[in-house]
Amino acid sequence: MNVTWVGLLAGLLTSIASLPQVVKTWRSRHVRDLSIWQPLLLSLGVALWLVYGMLIRDLPLILANITPLACNLLLTGMKIRYARNDRETTP
Q1: Would you say residue 79 lies in a domain?
Q2: What is the pLDDT of residues 46-77, one digit of tens each?
Q3: Does residue 59 lie in a domain region?
Q4: In this structure, which of 16, 23, 67, 89 has its CB flanked by the most CB atoms within 10 Å?
């Protein structure tokens, strides 16, 4: 297997890893068990990888970090927005 394919497969898997959590959170509108720190710190790390990829002009690295950045920023936003709903529905 070519080294490039290993990198592309790794990028694909890490890019889609947070999609199930995004979909579940979007559908349920419940974020009680989701820590704000996980998507927030992951967003920061992925953003830095994205900047690094841009600085060294590595297209696979850039592409592999766009989707997880968007997903984790979305999760962070949903955690903030839906946290009010969880507080209102908690007995």
Answers
A1: yes
A2: 999 999 999 999 888 898 899 999 999 999 99
A3: yes
A4: 67
